[in-house]
Design brief:
heterodimer; A: about 375 residues; alpha+beta; six-stranded mixed β-sheet; 21 strands; about 20% helix; elongated; disordered C terminus; B: about 575 residues; mainly alpha; two-stranded antiparallel sheet; 26 helices; about 0% strand; globular; disordered N terminus
Amino acid sequence: MLVVDGLTKLYANATDAIAGGIRDATFTLEAGTFFTLLGPSGCGKTTTLRCIAGLELPDAGVVRLCERVLFDKAGGIAVPMNRRDIGMVFQSYAIWPHMTVFENVAFPLQVSKDVRYDTADVGARVQKALDTVDLGGYGNRPATRLSGGEQQRVALARAIVREPQLLLLDEPLSNLDAHLREEMRIELKRLQRQTGITTVYVTHDQSEALSMSDRIAVIEKGRIVQMDTPEAIYYRPRTAFVAGFVGVTNMVAGTADSPARAGATVAVRLSSGERVLCQAVDDLPAGGGISVSIRPENVRLERRGAGSDAAGGGQSLLHGRVDQASFQGQSRRYDVQVGGWRLMVLADPMTRFAPGDEVTLRLDAANTIALPTNGAAGT
Amino acid sequence: MTTNNDNKAGAPGWLSAFRAHAAEHSTRWIAAVIGLVLAALVLPPVWYLVQGSLVETTVTGAAGDFTFAHYRKLAEGERLAASLVNSVIFALGSAVVALLFGGVLAWVVERTNAPFKILAYLTTIISLGTPYVLYVTAWLFLLGKVGPVNDIYRAITGSNGVLINVHSMSGMVLIEGMLWSPLVFLLLSATLRTSNPEFEEAARMSGASVWDTIRRITVRLALPAVMALVLLVFIRAFEGFEVPALVGLPGRVNVVTTDIFLALKDTVPPDAGRASAFSVVLLGVVAVLLAFYNRISRSAERFHTVTGKGFRARPFDLGRGRWIAGGVIVVNFLFVLVLPNMVLLWASILPFFQAFRWKAVATFTLENYRAVLNSPFYLELVWNTLLLAAASATVVMVLTLFVGWLAARRKPGGWALDQLATMPLIFPGIVLGTAVMQIYLALPIPIYGTLWIILIAYVIRYLPYGMRYSYSGMLQIHRELEEAAGMSGAGNLVILRRIVLPLLAPAVASGWLFIFLLASRVLSLPILLAGPNSQTIAVAMYDMWTNGQGTELAAMGLLWTAIMTAIASAFYFLSRRSGAGVYGN
């Protein structure tokens, strides 16, 4: 179990203004959780990871791993990184070029101070780690003769060879080409399941985060703005930033007719005059500015007048005209002109609407999210 | 060195507690110990120079009363002004000559399709291994009164005069310029090699001719680097000693460095106060010039856009002109390498130096070589020189390995250590020699006149060069390689030993060889510090020349050059691989 409480590490730029870092990060991970820190570059996600690792000294906060305090500012405790017993995979993999694959993976066992491993034990554990990452026969290979994917696997084997209670991964897939990245994503997830190791993963790639994680923390400008399951992050974003950063969405401005409690359905008047039923993720005050988030795949298109033009329960109907249509393989994308704004819609590729077609758009209130415009919904 | 020992020796009682503490705070301990060593090496020379220039000189060498008299005498006498003006003319002239020879050569070799390029590299490698004293004497043979140049002049004109009086300012400038041209070639060709060829290609695609491209793009882009080089050679010539001593002194052309030398060696008793005052003036000038140099070379680096794509500039096709360019390479090869060595070879097989005449052939003898090879004294010289060079290179690289690591990784104290280790750059060799001499005359440590004092001076002198190699080597090591070791459970000392040291080995090795080469040929330090039993090759060569044993010197010099060329080749190929830059010297 990993507990991070009030972790703060701020960097100042030349004029002493705050130039980055993380503020007041707080989360608790149950054993075996695959946890992802997601955010754009410079948001503080890597800083958080490095603070947990002990590579950076936080300004404040507590880091605890399985009842062992690794860092406590108030208590004056800062376990040095080499005593934390945490496995880590670096963005560059950091495979030592002057060693073989075996020597790279055996290193953590050889330098261990707390537990002594004899030669036979080292050999067995390295073999097990290499087998886990499917590099069984690679022990004698010089580190300089490895492909990107193999380097990644060696780095992973080195991180897990001591069977640590925590694994940290710093954008491990960003150096791989697209095809290999897809493959390693599944591989990493399988490995994490198999070993049951608590994992903290840092990435700026939202599809990686969604497909691998048990829980995701979205970070914006040094603050965790939402922490939830992938589904909740995707379908119930709590700020406009989260909605826009995770997945693709349409943002439409509007105002709420009446105040709403979190979880309630609320009618929102769009700036172009239409009314749509939305779900309020947080409490909404009456009359405040609202951003409505509509995922492109959550809009159903119908030819105007073709079906029943009546809205079902919890549904809203909008009318528009197809502006552009483009085939994308898995889906067909339509840009629809609705009143004064455009809506992107991803529909089944079998649908055949042409530019100029009049269409009806059907929205479910459950998937139409009303967010406060100023983005001030805290966590 | 002594502080180092003091610090390491610990009472056994608290040794284990010390060890536990040291493991926990190993970086701080390393920084503290190295910092003490560096401070003990680097700071006293500055202090003693300033103090020495401000107190009355006493016969015993102890400090007398406070006085401004040395500076007042300097300012009143015409010597300072005249020497300073001479130094400036000498340095400026040398820089221009070196740039002309080395710069044109670098462009021809790196950017054109001229033939014979290999000769330029050969010249550079061998000149790296040649002691300056030997090089200078070769040129004195060549340009001297009975040397071939004046000899031919007399044969043509039938007069009894000389074409060139080598013991003059122009002789000094010519020889010093030649001396530095291989370095200019080495540094400038590195600049030309790493600059982005796309700038030139873009100019060509925009319709510029070869000439327009060179004039408006290549030269403009290289200008900051060239200016930095001119300044570097200027500084080195300004503080240079060999040429002013061997060429200038006999012709009574004095510069600041020879004035310091005369105050210490030609005055009885040695006028340490005067030498110190001169030294402080020189130190100030060099410090200002170096600050300028740093600014210029920083702006030069901005043009170093390394694309990382591994592109190499396509050489300009000079057409028929390539044979002219090839001629430039051959002429340089002849002037810098063949002629000096030919004249040395000629001198080495004669009983006394004579002009190139057929009748001289009859007196050919191997006596000089026999004398050199049979003499235990020369053997001791070789041993002393190699021992000093190897020991100073080792000490410097060990120290700078730690400092480079602490500085490059921004560990606590790293910045301060970097400053300390780089500071000796402002010491001209002769100034550092003066300072170290005074310190150990005043201290009750009996190492004056032994190899130890020379070793200390060498270590101080070459610290900045070691730093250059270690630091830039460290910057090439991705810091995640170390962080990964830390996360694997390794402490700082284990990381240093098992990760940093093996990865830094090529840079450390080329730094070691570079310092070894410099230390094996330096004259300005041991000439002030060497005792009768701690002579080095360079000092012996200087003595032989001034004693008129020129032919024996030629024989010894050629043998020595052969050894050093082998070591210089090793350095050259290592440094091309590790890609570290050099300050020059």
